[in-house]
Amino acid sequence: MSDSNSSTAKSYLDSAMAQGQSALGSLTSSTGDKAEASARKDQAATEKENSHTIGKAGPLNFSPSGGVSTDDPNRTEGSWNQTIGSAKESLGGLMGAEGLKKEGQQQNAEGKGQEAQGQLSDLGSGVQDRITGTLGGIGASITGDRKKEEEYKLKHDDAKTKQRSAEADIQKAADA
User: Fold this and answer.
1) Rounded CA gap, 70 and 73, in Å?
2) Computed from CA positions of residues 121, 123, 128, 133, in that sequence, does the dihedral angle turn out positive or negative?
3) What is the pLDDT of residue 2?
4) Contacts of 149 (CB under 8 A, 6+ apart)
5) Of the candidates 57, 114, 141, 171, which lies 20 to 30 Å from 95 by C-alpha distance?
6) Residue 16 has what pLDDT?
7) Nearest alpha-carbon partner for 132 in 167, 163, 156, 154
C-alpha cells in the first residue's frame, strides 16, 4: 500500500525474483545475472528490515513509511505499574518489610498483565485498521478518489506502525 521501500510484501516479491534470477545466472553461467540477483536479494532484506523498524519515544511510535501511532494506555500504565511494583518489592526486601515486598510483587504482576492487554489491543486494532486501509485504498483507487486513497494509505501506515510496535514489544517480552 505504501510507496516507500519498506513493504514486507515487496521484500518477499524481490527475494523471490532474486532467487529466480540467481537460478537463471547459474544455468547460463552469467556472472552479471548472479551479481544482480545478489544485489536484489540484499535490497529485499533491507526492505523487510525497514518494514519492521519502529522508532519509539514514550508512548509514540514512528515508522520509515511515515506512520505514527500511540500506545494503548494499558501498555504505558502497565509498564509504570511494573516499575513501581519492582521498586516496592526491592525496598520491601531491603527493609525486611514483607508486606511491602508482597504488595510490590502483586503490582508488578498486575502491571505485566495490563501491559500485555494493551499490546494485544494494539496488535488487533493495528491488523484490523491495516486491512481497512488497504481495502479502502483499493476502493478509492478504483473510483478515482485520490483524497480518500491518501487518507486510507495514511490509515494503513499508522496501523502498520501500531501493529509493528506491539509485535516488537511482545517479542521483547518473550525473549526476556
Assistant:
1) 9
2) positive
3) 41
4) 137, 140, 141
5) 114
6) 66
7) 156
